[in-house]
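step: validate -> pass
step: tokenize input -> pass
step: predict -> running
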Amino acid sequence: MECFIVFGSLSYLQTRPEASQTGVYILSGLAPNSPTYREIVHIGQSVNVLARLKGHLKNENKLAFWEKTAIIISKDINLTRTHILYLESRLIELAFKTGRAVVNNDSQPVLPDLPEGERADMDFFLDEVLRLLPVVGFHFAQPLPIPTVQIEPSIPVQLPKSSPVVLTPKPPVFTFAGEGIIAQAVEKDGSFVVLKGSHARSEVGELGKRNAKLRDQLRTDGTLVDHKTGGNWLFSKDVPFSTTSAAASVVAGNNVHGEISWKVKTTGQSYKDWKNSPALM
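step: predict -> pass
step: emit ->
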């Protein structure tokens, strides 16, 4: 049994004959009242996934966050109703367990009984699903990263003027420096994590609607707090972001190209140059 994931807008999925098969579906988007790094997901199943998705178009609760969709089916079309109930239950279990996303499902379905051989097959199938979901932009089943690096924001960081290309044996600490602010971050488990103690500019300039909303959410939930000296804000905890640009824009209060503005702390090399360095190829 081979896993097959179709993802995209509902209008696109309607053009795919696979969307009408038996399978599991995932609805995802930004949680409207949660911190920036948390998406909201709804996981369901149906013997005709496309028909079920069309039904959700009348559900205001789901429309409030629903931005992207993934459908999980089998290439050889042999998923049964019991199989998809098993997959649905396991995925919801993982979503609750990792805490990365807000789970829109009210509760976790009871795990159906499967013969030992079929359970082993479905666990292997699930492993393939978990491997592929991050590739297509669904990270809810991955554990939240736990960075081991912390910073002391009161210590100024001087970036070198030159930016030599250095082969980095492991993911480095990145810095973002601006007028009156300094932030640090690490790349961990598919996320770009701004570290506790980093600064964020309290004033907002030219900032996109989504990133402005993210800043407001972080401020409201106590993640961005007042600096003891006044003026700018501080991150009260580590915050994973989906992209370097989202992290930089929230820190700066302006639209910022993250791959250029984040620098390797020890060398001044840009994130983009570091990512493209021969050591990482």
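step: describe -> Residues 155 and 182 are 9 Å apart (CA to CA).
step: cleanup -> pass
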